[in-house]
Recover the amino acids of this structure.
């Protein structure tokens, strides 16, 4: 069965970010991050979720991924919030397999 999907590609314009903190904020909101806290000789590890933890996707490359057509509005909205600092494009694609990677 063929499924409609959207290929999203992006590149960041590092000069437009005010700081490396702001650039990292973009990547953390998109991909999530692992937080490690050491307290009283104990180590606590937390996985903080990003947008792609909530949206089924197939990672194609470091800065490109495929999302189901019905989920692409969430991703487009996210990239529109960063449009002044991130260059992104989306392309309609057809897939012959399901979205297994999340």
């Amino acid at each position: 069965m063929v499924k409609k999907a959207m290929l999203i590609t992006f590149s960041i314009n590092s000069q437009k970010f005010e700081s490396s903190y702001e650039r990292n904020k973009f990547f953390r909101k998109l991909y999530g991050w692992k937080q490690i806290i050491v307290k009283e000789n104990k180590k606590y590890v937390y996985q903080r979720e990003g947008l792609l933890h909530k949206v089924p996707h197939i990672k194609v490359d470091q800065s490109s991924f495929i999302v189901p057509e019905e989920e692409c509005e969430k991703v487009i909205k996210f990239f529109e919030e960063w449009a002044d600092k991130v260059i992104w494009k989306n392309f309609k694609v057809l897939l012959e397999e399901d979205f297994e990677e999340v």
Q: What stands out?
A: The mean pLDDT is 92. The chain has one domain: 3-95. Residues 3-95 form one domain. The chain is about 25% helix and 40% strand.
